[in-house]
Amino acid sequence: YAIKGADSVLITSRENIVAGDAYLINGQSNAASWSVSNSFPNSDYRNDFCRTFGQTKRGNSFITESDTAWALSNNGKPYVGVWGIELQRQIVEKYGIPVCFMNEAVSGSAITEHTIRNAANPSNISNVYGRLLYRAKKSGHFDNLKGFFFWQGEAEAIDKPNVWKPEFEKLYNFWKTDYPSIGKFYIFQINITPFPFAEAADLRDYQRQIKKIFPKTEVISTVGNNGYDGGHYTVDGYKKIASDVFKLISRDFYGSTDTLQITSPNVQKVYYSTVAKDEITILFEDFQKMVWTPDSTYKQDDGTPRKYFMKDYIYLNNATDKIISGRSENNKIILKTSGFTGNQTLTYLPPYYPLNYPTDLRGIFGGPFLKNQRGISAFSFNKQAIADPLNIPTLAAKIQTATSISLTWKDVLNATSYQLEIKDLQVDKYNLVKIFPKGTLTFLVDNLLGNTNYTFRIKAISDNIESENSNVQIQTPKALGLPNLTAFATGIESVKLSWKAVNEAINYVIERKSLTSNSFEQITKVEANVLEFSDKPLVNSTLYSYRIKAIGTFTESPFANVEVKTLVPLQSPEPTLTIICSDKLESGSQCKFFYFGKKNTFARF
Length: 605
Fold this sequence. Notes:
Radius of gyration: 43 Å
Structural class: alpha+beta
Distance between the termini: 143 Å
Strand order of the largest sheet: 5-4-6-3-7-8-9
């Protein structure tokens, strides 16, 4: 209402007002994900808290400057799309936050259509770029946009793959200028397309690297997703993609602690992991736990089932060698090859599909695929150089004590660090001991168990290249037996100690403590052939604690303990003297002296 004095007039009325988060979607048909195929129905999900902004008038293909109405998502053009509404649903139901998605994707659009921008008026609605920017600004959310999703590249993969890279660089620079508030840009690596352009693999390989090249970006793999028909996805396929993306935006904007292995595994390095160069390691991020898919069964176009093997879709280029097997090990995929001919690169997944007809009779490429333990597909990569192996840092071990081992290893050229691991016979896996910087070639491992068999291994690391492990096995010595100590007092100031000989002892160490002492102190160290010791001078009538241990070449026994008290001295006698004489002392007179001291002692003078 507008009010003046006692008068008022109704200006406008609104119901169902919500406040929440805003996201943008752009790209081509998979970004639109609406009416992409007659065989893939659209989503009928609606929610009062899932909104969009900018609704075209009936019959209009694109919005006009007057099309600034708010609406429920997917209730009219422009549609939020299947995976867009699924993302909205999960945000609303998980976090209770209303959310607006604005989707300006155009089916079949080339990236050159997305880089058409009016420099004088970037919000010009005559082009794709301007229409999305116009809606974002008019929505009132322009200064608080969270995420920007861009799924595009299929148009170039089936026609002009080399165009995509320079045009995307141009587009990203436009985004930086016109969308300063965007929290993160999410870019999709496209799937394998069924047109014979080998350069399509280069396009996908560049897309997987975007996160390393451009700030505030995250890349999402689409290969291996269910429901793919060679171009688009089923409703369930789009929903699976939305679920994967939801984990990312939950981490980035909603404080989710579910962050383990939610990103697409991305190759970090490929290198020969044996000096013979017959084994290749594909290294992914440290936090990834990779899964090797041994085989998968698919139906051919004629309906007959056939097994396909992961090894057949990892290619050694410029060589006749083949991948003959593979396995996963933490964040690595390790491949065995048929041999080495040199000058090789490695490619994961074919550049296009169908490939190698008539051997493979599937209409589209359906796998198998490399994934992590949470089912997130790894990015495809193309012609990744294979680095030469590092030499093995030969490891040697030497017993130091019963509970410690000294390790030494040889320096490796080009190594930047060394990773040391340990295991004993009671466990099946190695545990990390320490990672050492270049130049460290020795380490004392202590606090070990005696009489235990340990295996150590060490590998050299350099720029994400790892050598083979150098292993050494060694057993800690058994502790020496107890010397069985006995003691008895031999006087008021002396104690005699004796003990039994211990096999493999070379010395015995004796320590003593009295009630007035706070700790034991060593009083002697004797050779192995000495089996007794007299300790004096001591304080009489005093309790002493002794302990002794046997010392061997590498180990020692526990302490044997004994307590003994020095003797109590006899009480000193108290003598008396009695003199008996005659009354006069004359010549010839006699006197008798009686002395009483020790028992039965008598003196006469």
